[in-house]
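Structural prep section.
Before we set up the soaks we want a predicted structure of the protein with tryptophan in place, mainly to decide which crystallisation condition to try first. Input record follows.
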Amino acid sequence: MPIDAVPPPTRALSGIQPTGRFHWGNYFGAIRQYIELQPGDRQAADEAYYFIADLHALTTVRDPAVLRGFVRDAAIDLVALGLDPERAVLFVQSDVPEVTELTWLLMTVTPMGLLERCHAYKDKKTRGLPADAGLFTYPVLMAADILAYDATVVPVGEDQVQHIEVCRDLAGTFNHLYGEVFTLPRPRLVEGGAKVPGTDGQKMSKSYHNTLDVFEEPATLKKQIMRITTDSRPLEEPKEPEGDHLFQLFSLVAPAAEQEVMAELYRRGGFGYGEVKKKLVEAAGQFFADARARRAALEADPARVDAMLEAGAERARRKAGEVLARARRACGLDRTAPPPAAVARRKG
Ligand code: ADP
Ligand code: TRP
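Run finished without errors. Recording the C-alpha cells verbatim:
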C-alpha cells in the first residue's frame, strides 16, 4: 500500500437476540464491546451498526406480546448501557426488509451440508428435538445481516464464530460467481475470550437459570448474589482467588483497588464468603447505577425510544438498499442494468 493511501473504513456490526432480559454474561461478553467500538471511543470503528435480532428470536419466542416487550426492553437496555444512537446505527432487524431479500439470494448459493454442520441445528437434532427451516437456515439470515451493511468486523462471543465463517463462505461463493459484490467480514472476540460464570459456577446462561440480570431489582439481585454457590472450606483456610467464580464476578464490577484488597483477603484466609457477597452486592449497585438511572428516564419516554429506532432503521435501510441493489444487479435480477463487467468478461 502506498504511504499516503487511506486505509478502508472499518465498519463494526453485531446483532443481539431479544430473548429475555440481558444478564452480566451478555453485558461483559458482548454489549460492552459494542459500546467500545462505536465511533468516537478509544477502540472505535469508523461506523457501527447494532441491531436487535427479532427475526432470529422468532425461532424461539412464540408469544407476540412477549416478543414486542423483549424488543423494546433490549432497545432501552442497550441505550441505557451506553450505546449512543447518534454515534452507532441502532435498529430492529425486521425494520430492514432488504435483509430478508438478500437472505434468499444467499440461500441459492448455500450448500445444505454447510448448514447441517452448524451447531444450533446440529445440537437440536442430536438431542432428537424437532427443528424448523428457520433454525436450519438461521446462519444464512445472519450472513445477510452482516453482508447487507458491508461490515468488516463483527464483535461476537465464541459461539458465533462458526456463523461468521459461514458468512465468509457464502460471500466468497457469491463473489466468485457474480463479481466483487460483498465485503468479507472478520469476527472480533472479546479480549481473552472471557466467559462470565453464573451463580452456580457454570457459564452464565438463560438456559442454565444461573443469571444475574443487569437491570434486576436490587432486592432480588441481592438474594441471587447471596445464593451464589461456594465451597465448604473453613473460614481460616487461605484461598486462591483465581478460578473462584465469586471472585470473578466481583472483579467484573469492583474498582481495581478493591479487587486487590479482596484478592489479599482470599490469600490470607479467615473470612467468610458471606462478606464477599455483601461487597459484591455493593459493587454491582455502584457499577450499574448510572445505567439504571438512564434506563428509568428512557422507560418514561417511549416516544423517544420509538424515534431512535425509526431513525436507526432509516439509516440502516439506506445502506442495505445500496448493497442489495448491487447484489440484484450482479445476479441478473435488475433488468434495467447492463451486465456487470465480471459476467461480461466471463462470457467473452
Ligand atoms: P444465553 O446463553 O443466556 O441464551 P445468548 O446466547 O443470548 O445468551 O448470548 C448473546 C451473546 O452474549 C453471546 O453471543 C455471547 O457473546 C454473550 N454471552 C452470553 N453469555 C455469556 C457468558 N456467560 N460469558 C460471556 N459472554 C456471554
Ligand atoms: N446469532 C446471534 C446470536 O445469537 C445474533 C445475530 C444475528 C448476529 N445476526 C447477527 C450477531 C449478525 C452478529 C452478526 O448471538
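Observations: The mean pLDDT is 93.
Flagged for discussion at group meeting.
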